[in-house]
Specification:
The N and C termini lie far apart (34 Å). By secondary structure, this protein is an alpha+beta fold.
Length: 157
């Protein structure tokens, strides 16, 4: 897959619930997986006509297989989760997902965009820094006991 081979499309309910669940489980530790009911609610909200509550995209490679996703919360100008399948990493998929979410939040008049990332997740922190985010603070135990999170911020003006 080349860097330009992934395209982003809106999520589809209910078809993408299983797709996103598989990617979530492939990319994250079990304690970071979306609970089934929450994931279904997120996909339903993002796929609805009322996109004020949640925004999402799925990345699809040139074979038509899903290779990533992103969720953003426009009401808080926050990217809530970014996932690029291991087979697609370092090929621009994560950067495209982050850029699309930032553009969607900017279109909704966000003055800044925030996200949280594990302090221990160097590759994700590097991706977000490449996309213009800077560490704004650290939340102790954000992801659980002993699992701190950096709050990263991107100014949109």
């Amino acid at each position: 897959m080349t860097e330009a081979a992934a395209t982003l499309r809106p999520v589809q309910f209910p078809a993408d619930v299983a797709t996103i669940r598989c990617l979530d489980q492939e990319c994250f530790a079990r304690e970071d997986w979306y609970h089934e009911e929450l994931l279904e609610a997120f996909v339903r909200a993002a796929a609805s006509e009322d996109r004020r509550s949640l925004w999402a995209r799925v990345a699809v490679d040139d074979s038509g297989a899903a290779c990533g996703f992103v969720f953003a919360d426009p009401s808080h100008s926050r990217i809530t989760k970014v996932c690029a399948a291991p087979r697609c990493r370092r090929r621009g998929v994560g950067q495209a997902l982050v850029a699309a979410a930032v553009a969607a939040l900017r279109a909704r008049k966000a003055l800044s965009v925030s996200l949280f990332v594990r302090v221990s997740n160097g590759p994700a922190r590097a991706l977000y820094a490449k996309c213009g985010f800077a560490v704004d603070g650290t939340e102790v135990d954000y992801y659980g006991k002993g699992l701190d999170g950096h709050r990263m911020l991107l100014d949109c003006f």
